[in-house]
Write a structure and sequence with these properties.
The chain is of the alpha/beta class and 255 residues long. It contains ten helices and eight strands. Bound molecules: 2-phosphoglycolic acid. 2-phosphoglycolic acid binds next to β8.
Length: 255
């Protein structure tokens, strides 16, 4: 895995397909890659994270193209009696090079703690996967004025010290903005990203250069404004990443 610090001028645009997509959906990824081959997006690094069932096929179809392939979760152990789970090594073997960890749908739906996510991040490093670690507050926490402290605690608890010399990203995804069509104001995004930057700089040698992505209802209509905000190093995109016609304009908005 690369340990070269990322170029902050390049925005990292990641599509999270969640539990969507049958084999036919591979064509959306192929169309995206073809479009970027014909007209490269110099200002963007681009990745798609399909469901695990499609990783092998998508990685084969996108080999040698500008679109990288990632996974949405992994189990910390490398192998063993864990029915239904998938290890970081298996994802890497299938062709993934990245893995989303600690998405709020896993923190809430599967009871994942910061410590669980840190163990998964260590597994990702062991297997040669680049982690994208998600953090974000609930609506109740935001209304109670706790957003900054909640997010800082998640960053410090979910990122193991082993990441110090590794390439990784953090994604700020307010839970109430995911799939809702609601987004925080630009000032609210900038305040949380500044808080995350401060936590990263305090904890990691490379902390000033770790990309901090924004996620939650990113669409073609709001992508450019969000990507211009201070300390926004890219976007983690759910619903609008499923179709090339929606995702490509978001990639292009990166410049
Ligand atoms: P959304 O999801 O873009 O559909 O809001 C973002 C995410 O959950 O990563």
């Amino acid at each position: 895995m690369s340990t070269t610090p990322p170029n902050p001028a390049v925005k990292f645009i990641v599509g999270n397909w969640k539990m969507n997509g049958l084999s036919a959906g591979l064509e959306e990824g192929v169309a995206l890659a073809r479009a970027l081959e014909q007209a490269p997006a110099g200002g963007a690094r681009v990745a798609l994270c399909p469901p695990a069932t499609l990783i092998l096929a998508l990685a084969r179809r996108l080999a040698g193209t500008p679109v990288e392939v990632g996974a949405q979760d992994c189990r910390p152990e490398a192998s063993g009696a864990f029915t239904g789970d998938i290890s970081a090594e298996m994802l890497r073997d299938a062709g993934a090079r990245l893995v989303i960890l600690g998405h709020s749908e896993r923190r809430a739906g599967h009871g994942e703690t910061d410590a669980d996510i840190a163990a998964k991040a260590e597994a990702a490093l062991r297997a040669g996967l680049e982690p994208i670690v998600c953090v974000g507050e609930s609506l109740e926490q935001r209304r109670a004025g706790q957003a900054l402290e909640v997010v800082r605690a998640q960053v410090l608890g979910s990122l193991p010290a082993a990441l110090d010399a590794a390439a990784f990203s953090v994604a700020y995804e307010p839970i109430w903005a995911i799939g809702s069509g609601l987004t925080p104001s630009i000032a609210e995004i900038e305040a949380v990203h500044a808080e995350i930057r401060g936590a990263l700089v305090g904890a990691f040698a490379n902390g000033a250069r770790v990309p901090i992505l924004y996620g939650g209802s990113v669409k073609p209509a709001n992508a450019a404004e969000i990507l211009r905000a201070a300390e926004v190093g890219g976007a983690l995109v759910g619903g609008a990443s499923l179709k090339c016609e929606d995702f490509l304009p978001i990639v292009r908005a990166a410049g």
